[in-house]
């Protein structure tokens, strides 16, 4: 009897990460949930287990390389890695942006993705059919005012995915990049504006049906479950009301 394939999801404590864990569990993967907030991922693991799925929680800061390397020792073989941990801080122009915010975004979005990918690549290769998903953003593909630090970090993540795909071609590992546009989750915009819920709400004001975390998770689940020879290099997903990062239809 074949072993149940394992999928690791980073940043699984909320939003897209949690939704992706639920989707992959429903697709038959044993999901390993990682995030810094141990209570959140343990609650999600319990929810999935109660529903008859296989799930394990592991508290992890993807920017801590020693901790990531220790985590990776648990895997001899791995089917899927979803690099979802990331996020945005601030919306200041380049002229006045806080370098500390830029550094933190780069560390989480780029170095965190690099850490986990490097540590788990041997197990993904050993599986004979591994898949790496890098969750970037439409910010990885074009700029917008007030987004310099986040845009720079997501561009870095995009280039990481593109370069890795070139470097490991010929190995049994796919590299998939999913770049969502406007997604309304419970935390993303609120975190960006440091808890200012009024500012966060304005991001989505008047927008008819922004994407949900479940929409993006469904996209990831579809890409991961394509036949092994099919690689979805880059999948951009936006709500119908958004034509670009700077062109959004609002009914205001």
Automatic annotation (TrEMBL):
- Listed GO MF terms: oxidoreductase activity, acting on the CH-OH group of donors, NAD or NADP as acceptor
* Cross-referenced InterPro entries: NAD(P)-bd_dom_sf (IPR036291), SDR_fam (IPR002347)
Keyword Oxidoreductase listed: yes
- Give the keywords, sorted: Oxidoreductase
Which Pfam families does the entry mention?
A: adh_short
Q: Which domain of life is it from?
A: Bacteria
Keyword hit for Manganese: no
Q: Which family does it belong to?
A: Belongs to the short-chain dehydrogenases/reductases (SDR) family.
Name of the protein in question: SDR family oxidoreductase
List the source organism.
Streptomyces parvus
Top-level taxonomy: Bacteria, Bacillati, Actinomycetota, Actinomycetes, Kitasatosporales
């Amino acid at each position: 009897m074949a072993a149940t394939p394992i999928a690791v999801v980073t940043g699984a404590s909320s939003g897209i990460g949690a939704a992706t864990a639920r989707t992959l569990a429903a697709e038959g993967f044993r999901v390993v949930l990682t995030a810094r907030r141990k209570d959140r991922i343990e609650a999600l693991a319990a929810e999935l287990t109660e529903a008859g799925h296989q799930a394990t929680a592991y508290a992890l800061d993807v920017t801590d390389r020693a901790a990531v390397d220790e985590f990776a020792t648990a895997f001899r073989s791995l089917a899927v890695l979803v690099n979802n941990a990331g996020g945005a801080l601030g919306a200041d122009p380049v002229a006045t942006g806080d370098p500390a915010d830029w550094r933190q975004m780069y560390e989480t979005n780029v170095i965190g993705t690099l850490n986990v990918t490097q540590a788990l690549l041997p197990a993904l290769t050993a599986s004979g059919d591994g898949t790496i998903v890098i969750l970037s953003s439409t910010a990885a593909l074009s700029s917008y005012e007030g987004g310099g630090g986040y845009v720079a970090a997501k561009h870095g993540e995009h280039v990481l995915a593109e370069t890795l795909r070139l470097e490991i071609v010929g190995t049994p590992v796919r590299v998939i990049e999913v770049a969502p546009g406007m997604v309304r989750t419970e935390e993303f915009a609120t975190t960006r504006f440091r808890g200012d819920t009024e500012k966060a709400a304005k991001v989505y004001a008047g927008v008819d049906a922004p994407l949900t975390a479940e929409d993006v998770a469904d996209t990831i689940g579809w890409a991961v479950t394509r036949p092994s020879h099919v690689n979805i290099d880059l999948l951009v997903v936006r709500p119908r009301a958004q034509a670009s990062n700077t062109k959004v239809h609002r009914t205001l």
